[in-house]
């Protein structure tokens, strides 16, 4: 989040390359995202994201609406998500057909959310608690957790 805030401090038209490359990593011209269509689905999408992490480090989550994506001609396609929260793999989407111009649009949307304080910070203790609860509820198989994450959960 700090890299986005640095961009804001420099000026309204500035977007740091580090912010884009650190937070908006693409593969095959797609950006991996998790879908939530309701307040009920949001925690499931968050868990799917958290259960895809290979280590427990503080993350910041930005929510983009379907309207924001549609109005900017950003295309979502369903794709299997890489998460150990098996029941929530279907919540995964890719923003597809990205090029430099489309990625800039995504970056501008993210920067605006940061400017408007519309992000959610998930700290290490929050992430640990989410994963512990998911293991207890059976949403996540503890054997599927990466070793680094399993060690963190024991703290």
Would you mind describing this structure in some detail?
It is built from 7 helices and 5 strands; from the N terminus they run H-H-E-H-E-H-E-E-H-E-H-H. The radius of gyration is 16 Å and the shape is globular. Helix content is 44%, strand content 14%. It has a 3-stranded antiparallel beta sheet. Strands 2-5 form a two-stranded antiparallel ribbon. The chain has one domain (2-153). By secondary structure, the protein is α+β, with helices and mostly antiparallel strands.
Write the layout of secondary structure elements.
Blueprint: H1 2-10, H2 17-23, E1 31-34, H3 42-50, E2 59-62, H4 66-71, E3 75-78, E4 92-96, H5 100-115, E5 119-122, H6 124-137, H7 147-153
Antiparallel strand pairs: 1-4, 2-5, 3-4
How would you summarize what this structure contains?
It is built from seven helices and five strands.
**Radius of gyration, Cα only, in angstroms?**
16 Å
Largest sheet, strands/sense/barrel: 3 strands, antiparallel
- Runs with pLDDT <50, length 5+? none
Backbone shape: globular
Please provide the count of β strands.
5
User: How confident overall, as mean pLDDT?
Assistant: 92
Secondary-structure-based class equals alpha+beta
Fraction in beta strands? 5-15%
Number of domains: 1
Strand order of the largest sheet: 1-4-3
Cα(first) to Cα(last) distance is: 26 Å
Order of helices and strands: HHEHEHEEHEHH
- Helical content stands at 40-55%
Number of helices: 7
